[in-house]
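The pair is set out directly below:
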Amino acid sequence: MKTILKLFTMLFCVVSFAQTTVKGKIIDNTGLPLPGANIVVVGTSSGTITDFDGNFTLTVTQEPPFSIQISYAGFETQTIEVTTNNQTVDVTLAEGNSLDEVIISASRTPERIFESPVTVERFGLKEIKNTASADFYGGLENLKGVDVNTSSLTFKSVNTRGFATTANTRFMQLVDGMDNSTPALNFPIGNLVGMIETDVQSVELLPGASSALYGANAFNGILFMQSKSPFDHQGISAFVKRGITSQKAAGDNDYTDLGIRMAYKFSDKFAAKVNFGYLHGTDWAATSEVDSDVFGGTRASNLNYNGINVYGDEVSANLNDLAGGTGIVPDVFVSRTGYNERDLTEHKAESVKADWGLYYRPITDSNFEIQYVGKVGTGTTIYQGTNRYNIDGFFQQQHKLEIKNDNYFLRGYVVADNAGDSYDMVFTGININRSWKSDEAWFGDYINTYVAATLGGGATDEQAHAAARAAAESGRFEPGSEEFNSAFDRIIKDPDLATGSRFQDQSKYYHADGNYNFSHLIDFVDIQVGGSFRQYDLNSLGSIYTDIDGPIKYSEYGFYTQLQKNVELSDMMALKVTASARYDKSEFFDGFVSPRLSLGLTLNENHNIRASAQTGFRNPTTQDLFIGLDAGRAILVGSAPDNLDRYSRDYTANNGMVYTQTGAAAYNNSYTASSVQQLAATGDPTVLEIANPNLVSPEKVTSFEVGYRGKFNKLTVDFSTYYNKYQDFISSEVVIAPLYGSVADGSAIAAIANSDFTTYSTYTNSDVDVNSYGASIGLSTKILSDFDLGGSYTFTKQDFDQAANPNFETYFNTPEHKFKAHFGNTELFKNFGFNVAYKFSDDYFWEATFGDGIVPEFHTFDAQINYKIPSLKSIIKIGGTNIGGKEYFTIFGSGYIGSMYYASWTINNL
């Protein structure tokens, strides 16, 4: 504590002595002020930004002469010489284009998008302010080649180039350098506990494999979100957004989103900021009663009905097996009657988040900086994974310490979560059913009534089944009744899935990474080196992982280097060569090297051709390794060697004997699910196929990419095409493990015939070829003098023989064709602007453990108008998403996405 007090005393007692003052105004070529333009003394970190009217005052310790650099997103940067004290500098910036904007993600060093060695997308301040989406995170959907899969109003998953899931472990998301994936689930959670809009400086996105610089998780792409520095952006800024969400299933409901940012620069050496955000609304209700097992099936037409958003009907049994083979009892499967999702959740959507930072620059006129950043957030939403989960009071926190300057950074942070009062809606439905009548009693009533109706009443088969279900349903808890509410409240607080549905988690991970750039020391080539280390501490208390006896800990590390060289071939031609390699090692697997080589040829300053070849890999996730979860449809068992026997359960066979089975049976004594289905259809045991999947190992990809960026007067072109070849592709495989007997010698056939088996979902690698390829092109221009017009087309295709591999799902889950367009004007007339955006998505087939089905094609139209009030430093925006459009969904089994209409007031967001 004494050390901390001394540090704060140092920070607040800094005195600076001003020597030179520069004042001025920054405008665009139409005479309009540019608020938030950056003015920096060249070669130092000293600088300021313009106010809402474009004015600035810069006071520094340097004596003239020195140079200042003036920049603003979307405009060409200018450098001005300062020769006297109290000099006035009025500058008109010429409008540039998106290719001139500077990014750091592609090579971990500042460079123009135009010269980037790989494909990169950027969403800057201009795009954030003008997006027609309800928030900046939703606006990412308008970027070329980007897919945003919506589980719920506040839970969205960003992906590129295929293989998308709601748990998108192939894609990494960094907020101020910190991975914001949840420790328990091991995937990004969108912006549920992320940044508020007024604190966003820029968003950069790298599609495709980025393992060579960013490690194993950056397999399908990586999203960088950078916040504003309190040294550059001071003051109080805030926004409030009010509107409605409109959906047929949920009706019209209020929507509120607000945030406030407070930042203060105490001196040239110390600055601090605090952010707070709050969102409240009603989620997109999921009400599908589509039968997940039989096309066109309903409760009335299918005895074994399993509705997509109906929970509890997953429990089913073969009546003849239960009756001991009695001839009068039909050989059919019958499922219990479930409860609709709307009976098991309020569809509440809420997010509360806050972050703060302390920033210290101890050396005058140096950009050496020490940071402490803390982030906390809690939220309520719906997440769709193996089942549908009501995430209630989920809490995540991050704490980071970082030192950095232009040439290096070293950071360490911890990410911890708590599942709060979250629960599994599938098991909520299952166990409400069991609370009023056990499965044994329910099926017993069903069989007895069926036999009585058939033998004694002369009922037809259809009539007997109807009477049997009515009798079995006697005593059912009706939604809303006191008995139902009491059972519901008890079950969602019980973490034992045999009787409850709550899932618990208090997992965390510790991460450290650093990077050093030798470009200031070495002239002939830019050299960077870096590395990272991460330790996982899984603690789900046995509700997700096999950690009932205590937390599971494991670690991984990696290090990399990159060399970059610019070669002037002629006055009109330059070549940039970038070569990098990274070595990564998990304690469970052998190390792996990921190299990347890229070439960028610039012609005549307006054309750039790039080509790259790289390999990438991803380690199996925490779920792939350590999950041990009965999901109802199947038991999920991770394939870490010491995990197999940690999952153990007792089962009572139809012969009355009790068998103990561990997760090892799924990998060492199992049949393929499809062959067991064939046996049921044909009665021929020779069709049975041994599964025994291999334990999961790292997945690898070899990626080739070619691209072009060009400027033709006002037209900007950005094109890329790629081909990915995967090896040891990680996915799940459903297998059937008999309770007794061996699949090797055929003695397990009797167990299968008697329905004495367990269904498992295993984690393994495919030994078949999985490839994908695609292309994207984006065009943008100015028309009618100052109207922005742009659009993009993306083609994505998977090359995989599903018919030859019926038991293996790749979860490609990506439309083959996408088209996006936007049109707008930031200054249609004085202080008034607008923007409209259109999106088209082709239909595609969605594969997931929760359910498989078609996602139909959809079209959306978003629009906003905005008006600036300079005297109040305010912007008023009115807009809507999916305006007047047809409701659609991006994930099979999720709620239909309706329309949103909103009005917002933003103050002092420079």
Remarks:
- Confidence is low (pLDDT under 50) at residues 1-18.
- The two ends are 37 Å apart (CA to CA).
